Amino acid sequence: xxxxxxxxxxxxxxxxxxxxxxxxxxxxxxxKRDGLIMEFMDxxxxxxxxxxxxxxxYETAQRKIDMARAMxxxxxxxxxxxxxKEHPEITTQSKNIMGVVVPQIESSKVKKSLDERGYGxxxxxxxxxxxxxxxxxxxxxxxxxxxxxxxxxxxxEEIETTKRRVNALEFTLLPQLYENQEYIExxxxxxxxxxxxxxxxxxxxxxxEEEEAEAAAEAEAVSAD
Amino acid sequence: MSAVGSSxxxxxxxxxxxxxxxxxxxxxxxxxxxxxPAEIARFMEESTYEAEINALGSRHGGxxxxxxxxxxxxxxxxxxxxxxxxxxxxxxxARYLRxxxxxxxKTVIRGIYVDASTEEIExxxxxxxxxxxxxxxxxxxxxxxxxxxxVLDDTIYGPALEEAYPAYEESGILVPLxxxxxxxxxxxxLSELGRDEPTRQYESFLTAEIDFRNARxxxxxxxxGADIDPAEYFIEGGDLFTRDTLARLARNLDELxxxxxxxxxxxxxxxxxxxLEEADSLIAFExxxxxxxxxxxxxxxxxxxxxxxxxxxxxxxxEREVQNIRAIARGKEAGLSDAEIEEELxxx
Lengths: 225, 348
Fold this sequence. Notes:
Shape of chain B: globular
Number of domains of chain B: 1
Largest sheet of chain B: none
Order of helices and strands of chain A: HHEEH
CATH topology of the domain at 28-152 in chain A: Helix Hairpins
Oligomer: heterodimer
Helix content of chain B: over 70%
Number of strands of chain A: 2
CATH class of the domain at 28-152 in chain A: Mainly Alpha
Number of strands of chain B: 0
Mean pLDDT of chain A: 90
Mean pLDDT of chain B: 86
Largest sheet of chain A: 2 strands, antiparallel
Helix content of chain A: over 70%
Structural class of chain A: mainly alpha
Structural class of chain B: mainly alpha
Distance between the termini of chain B: 32 Å
Number of helices of chain B: 18
Low-confidence stretches of chain B: none
């Protein structure tokens, strides 16, 4: 509230400094927000592609495993799955996009060659190979989707925070500072006007007193004559 | 019953013929493709699968019930054939049905490998091979892979598994053991076959099966691009490849496809090979090899009426029935359309 501020020249200078800092901060945050939105749009495109791939890969994998279960039997498919020993591994690192720390997921042992899957080649069929291929593909897409979507969520959170900061500066802090500045300026002007008026009054009074003194002196001189 | 004594094809063929008459017809398959899993189970309950559906109905449901009932019925039928057979006929039938033993050995080994319970392993066994209940029980009781090898010591799989065990210990994966089991099955498939005409017919069927298996594996290797020596996966006994030819061709998919397209199987596999080039999938090729083997199996049944061939023809037809019903039920469960099931899964 503007009335809480003492209308002093010192406060006015402090407020002007704060206004300058806030305006600079507002511009910077606005640029950051726009930059984040542009990065977010890129990630959004990527996330949409990955989502679509994920959906396609899931359908393909499901179809392949359904076919394998239909032709080879559930027992054979479960048996082939049980023969796998080396399970896929993921390692997470982080990278920085405009100050936002997003995860970078590296996967290993997802794609396997025929001899790494654990089941014997002689007693199995291409349907099981193709189901395994399709699921490996799906797993890679899931890992990529996890990376992209987490990055997207983190970017979104950061955009929200930055947007809130920009709005707070633009619609709350800066208007309040401008109001305080205006209030102090008005008060100071008013004080200045009062001062001038007071000085004028003093001057007038002094002149009046001088005139009175002069008149009294003249009267005294006349009576002495 | 055993490989000792004289052969009894007349008796076995007569019984098998009666069973063949109970197999589902094309019309019944078409009806099945229009039913849901529950209706299929009901339909099966009213046919030769009644005992299995009733016995398993309380433990399993849906498509699992159908699959387990099919497997159990298949095992019962083939066990019966081995029980009736004697002498040379027993040997000829058993060498084909040993594929179920090989499958069971792999199931037990995989179960132990992933610490599955005995019950979980047992439910996945198909007791259609030569192993008796006692040996299956001992296999299920084995607590380690070494224990399994010990139980199989006096069978054809024992020496091969013992030989492959160090490779398994070194790599930690089951591939050496699984390949040893499958290779032993194929090695014994053609060894010491007789020279009479029905046996030659049977031999040419088994040769075609080995050729197709070699072709499928070579195509899988060529497409995968894995750094595997193709000669390791070569099965002896076929006409189509030698070890060297396979090793050379499995490194070049185009040459391999051309080689198969110009072989004696060109008529059976040609369209599927063209599809392989277009669709980049081996499934059509495997479908074509299955269909060619089944067509050959059907012919076997009529050429020499009193020999091993009608029995083998029935075994193939029964396997096809089980495969078809399972395919229909699983296809329905997965939401495939009737046309897709008929086109992609069912081999009539």
